[in-house]
UniProtKB/TrEMBL annotation:
Residues 8-80 form the RNase H type-1 domain. It comes from the Eukaryota. One of its GO terms (molecular function) is RNA-DNA hybrid ribonuclease activity. It comes from Malus domestica. PANTHER family: OS05G0353850 PROTEIN, POLYNUCLEOTIDYL TRANSFERASE, RIBONUCLEASE H-LIKE SUPERFAMILY PROTEIN. This is RNase H type-1 domain-containing protein.
Amino acid sequence: MDAMVARKGVALAMERGFHYLIIECDSIKIVKALHGNSPNMFAVGHIVEDSKALLLRITGVLVAHTRRQAKGTAHRLARHGIHMDTNSCSWFEEPPNFISNLLVSDCN
């Protein structure tokens, strides 16, 4: 799932015209694969390769490993996003109500 989320995130960043991107992932395999230069051969290799091709078109990219405990808000958003129509919701100013408390706790 992390590979698909990364690809969707990169595509969204490109659509929005972002030139700098930070990708945090709790899968060390995905992080290493996105950093790698050789073709990726594990189960989601084609998704990783798509992501790498998209990342080449972004000016500044940082791909970093993070512990799962450190990304509660991102995990909740990903779970919510799986069950919704991709065109039905976007936000770039105010966060959705269902994650407001998580954002506050992440900042403390």
